[in-house]
UniProtKB/TrEMBL annotation, chain A:
Keywords: Amino-acid transport, Signal, Transport. This is ABC transporter substrate binding protein (PQQ-dependent alcohol dehydrogenase system). The keyword Acyltransferase does not apply. Residues 1-19 form the signal peptide. GO terms for biological process: amino acid transport. The lineage of its organism: Bacteria, Pseudomonadati, Pseudomonadota, Alphaproteobacteria, Rhodobacterales.
TrEMBL record, chain B:
InterPro entries: Host-pathogen_enzymatic-act, N2O_reductase_N, PQQ_b_propeller, WD40/YVTN_repeat-like_dom_sf, YNCE-like_beta-prop, YVTN_b-propeller_repeat. The lineage of its organism: Bacteria, Pseudomonadati, Pseudomonadota, Alphaproteobacteria, Rhodobacterales. Keywords: Signal. The keyword Zinc-finger does not apply. Gene3D superfamilies: YVTN repeat-like/Quinoprotein amine dehydrogenase (2.130.10.10). The keyword Transcription does not apply. This is PQQ-dependent catabolism-associated beta-propeller protein. Residues 22-319 form the YNCE-like beta-propeller domain. Residues 1-24 form the signal peptide.
């Protein structure tokens, strides 16, 4: 009967009352200006990321009620133009655990706050490689894959399919440039290079002229196996497909993409997470939602196994060999001890189906095949985790 | 289950093969992505019937007298009751949402059903066709077991990573025990003195002492040439007398043979791709495994621990059950 009493208490604490172990998790989103795109077909949901954190919270609460562990989510939004550091400081007064949706430079600024020392922050939104490299912070973990993990996944796919003659069109925004740079790095890593590159410089409305413009624009790329599009804001890329001069597949930001998460993932029990999510939020789960969910569940898993809400205890557990997160990707997810990046398989998908999942067969690694994606220990210049 | 004759024990593989002909029966396999069940003759090792079911059939079990077969039609949100002689659906049972797995209580009357999407275990009376109880469990309940004396039922929850212990007299939880990541299947063994739970992502089987609900042993697996992450224990079944467990290791495409006394792995057997669940024939001389990705069933000779044959069934075979 003792267990039943615990259960009752746990249920109460799920609603925020006192628990044996209680974790308040902050969610801080810093709104960034979004440049206009040619198409309005896919508006970015207002609760992107946050919805994933909420589903993760529900999962944690259900588990916690059997153990006397309570969880709470405190949400803070920073509007465009406002200083994010002040609200971050305030939030750090009430919790040491924060999921962050912010640009790279804001992430490091928050991580550098005196109030944030000893806290556990999760980057759920920024793919920049530098955050896992020279700009890493000991208190900043990354549940979102780096851009390099995604471009490495595609590069493995190119090798496997023998698509080694590649060309690229890149957009002009910083995110496009970062993606293009990550792609060049990945191609080099797997022994390939671009035979031709072009920048997207048009400002015409491609919904009317794509069929006329793109064939001409791609004509001088010559022959190639696949065309890479670096268009992370999804501005022009969607109009490239089926309009190229040569009949070739389009990959990268459009067409065949390497993504953290996609509605087409249904294997490995993922259908359950997808349906749980879409029932709660009336939309599909996006990559950023998945990253926030994974961060929330990482904390939950650590609390479950350590029976503690102490940041140091949780951080050591999360970075230890004992930690493993069942993340609906077919194998356990763990954190890289050298830069705090969540190791994970990367889906290679088009909007209608999963095509492959990286690491692909044959890409071996001396310790963990997942480390064939992104910055491996010897490559990373991150020193904060030593 | 029919007892093994002394002849069979004394004889070799050849004898075992002959013996199956005297105990002919059927293995029923649910095909998750075909909405059918395939019926395999244990005598000819061929599919002799295919019957249509509701959407996404997964868990499958027979009533004690084998006059009815219960099928979890997950996406139809129902447990279907079929006449196994005609393949006709007799009626549906209320099951709660998304029933995945279930277990029939020894009283032949109560089904304990895991409702994967709802974090609930539903108890249904198969005679009155009414829901008797709904029990809150962890996220994504899946594995279901009931003790031989019928007093304890188990639900494992995949994302909560627990075995939930249900007192069947009160339909209340009396214990919740943590296991490794993504528990998938549970079984009571050795007259109910032990309860085993497989953890797919954790890559282990946890053995509990039933009386105290404490961990007694943990079994790990290692398949040569396969990364440990891909060695994922899911379904398992025991040989006669509970001396050995045959454990499906998912995407490693192998079965493990575990000595149930020492908890050591004695053998690995290569079967089809993404091996899920399994069922024995009448005298437990042959084991039939469902291989989700390759869409077939592997027949394993239990004595020699060798795969004998692959039988093509429907798309994504999932559950398996035997009837004489």
């Amino acid at each position: 009967m003792h267990r039943v009493i615990i259960l009752a208490t746990a249920l109460l604490c799920g609603q925020g009352a006192s628990a044996d172990v209680a974790l308040n998790v902050g969610y801080l989103s810093v709104e960034a200006p979004r440049p206009p795109t040619l198409s309005n077909l896919d508006p970015v949901p207002a609760n992107i990321g946050l919805a994933g954190a909420q589903t993760g919270l529900q999962d944690n609460l259900t588990t916690g009620k059997f153990l006397g562990h309570g969880y709470r989510l405190t949400e803070v939004e920073v509007a465009i133009g406002e200083d994010p550091l002040e609200p971050a400081r305030d939030l750090l007064q009430s919790t040491s655990f924060i999921l962050l949706d912010a640009p790279a430079e804001t992430l490091t600024a928050i991580a550098d706050l005196p109030e944030a020392q000893g806290a556990i922050l999760f980057n759920t939104s920024a793919g920049e490689l530098s955050l896992r490299d020279t700009e890493c912070r000991a208190n900043l973990l990354h549940s979102l894959p780096s851009d390099a993990m995604r471009t490495d996944a595609l590069a493995q796919f190119f090798v496997q399919r023998r698509w080694d003659d590649l060309v690229m069109i890149s957009g002009s925004y910083a995110q496009d440039q970062a993606y293009a740079e990550a792609m060049r790095r990945s191609l080099k890593k797997f022994g390939m290079a671009l035979s031709e590159e072009k920048s997207w410089a048009f400002d015409a409305d491609m919904r009317r002229t794509a069929s006329q413009e793109i064939p001409l624009f791609t004509q001088d790329l010559g022959d190639y196996d696949a065309l890479i599009v670096a268009d992370e804001l999804h501005d022009f890329g969607r109009y490239v497909l089926y309009n190229t001069w040569e009949a070739r597949p389009v990959v990268g930001s459009e067409g065949l993409s390497a993504v953290t998460w996609s509605p087409v993932i249904e294997q490995w029990g993922a259908a359950q997470l997808q349906s749980r999510f879409s029932e709660a939020h009336a939309r599909d789960m996006a990559s950023q939602d998945y990253a926030a969910w994974a961060a929330m569940r990482s904390l939950g898993e650590a609390v479950t196994r350590t029976n503690s809400a102490d940041p140091d205890t949780l951080r050591s557990y999360i970075l230890s060999d004992s930690f493993e997160l069942a993340g609906f990707k077919g194998r356990p997810l763990t954190y890289r001890a050298w830069n705090g990046q969540l190791r994970q398989p990367i889906a290679i998908a088009h909007p209608r189906a999963l095509v492959a999942q990286a690491p692909l067969e044959g890409f071996l690694h001396q310790t963990n095949e997942l480390d064939s994606l992104g910055l491996d220990r010897p490559e990373s210049q991150c020193e904060a985790f030593q | 289950m029919l007892p093994i004759s002394k002849h069979v024990i004394a004889g070799g593989t050849a004898f075992l093969l002959c013996s199956t002909t005297t105990h002919a029966g059927e293995i029923w396999v649910t095909n998750e992505k075909d909405d059918t069940v395939s019926v395999i003759s244990t005598e000819t090792l061929e599919v002799i019937q295919t019957y249509e079911t509701g959407e996404r059939p997964r868990g499958i079990t027979f009533s004690k007298d084998f006059s009815r077969v219960y099928i979890c039609a997950s996406d139809s949100d129902a447990v279907q009751v079929m006449d196994p002689n005609t393949g006709k659906i007799l009626h549906d049972l209320p099951s709660g949402e998304d029933p995945e797995q279930f277990v029939l209580h020894p009283d032949d009357k109560h089904l304990y059903i895991a409702n994967e999407d709802d974090a609930i275990t539903t108890v249904v009376d198969v005679e009155s066709r009414k829901v008797v109880a709904q029990i809150d469990v962890g996220v994504e309940p899946e594995g279901m077991a009931v003790s031989p004396d019928g007093k304890v039922a188990i639900t494992t929850s995949e994302t909560t990573n627990m075995a939930h212990w249900i007192d069947t007299a009160t339909q209340q939880l009396f214990a919740n025990t943590l296991v490794d990541s993504r528990p998938r299947h549970a079984e009571f063994v050795k007259d109910g003195s032990e309860m085993w739970v497989s953890s797919e992502i954790g890559g282990t089987i946890t053995v509990f002492d039933t009386a105290t609900q404490t961990e007694k042993a943990k079994i790990s697996f290692e398949v040569q040439g396969v990364h440990p992450d891909r060695v994922q224990p899911v379904g398992f079944e025991f040989t006669e007398g509970d001396t050995h467990a045959f454990v499906a290791l998912g995407p490693s495409n192998h079965l493990a043979v575990v000595n149930a006394a020492t908890y050591e792995v004695e053998d690995y057997i290569l079967v089809g791709r993404r091996v899920w669940h399994m069922a024995f024939n009448a005298d437990r001389s042959q084991l039939f495994t469902t291989n989700g990705v390759s869409g077939d069933v592997t027949v394993v000779d239990v004595a020699s621990r060798k795969a004998l044959k692959s039988i093509k069934v429907g798309r994504f075979p999932w559950g398996a059950a035997f009837r004489p």
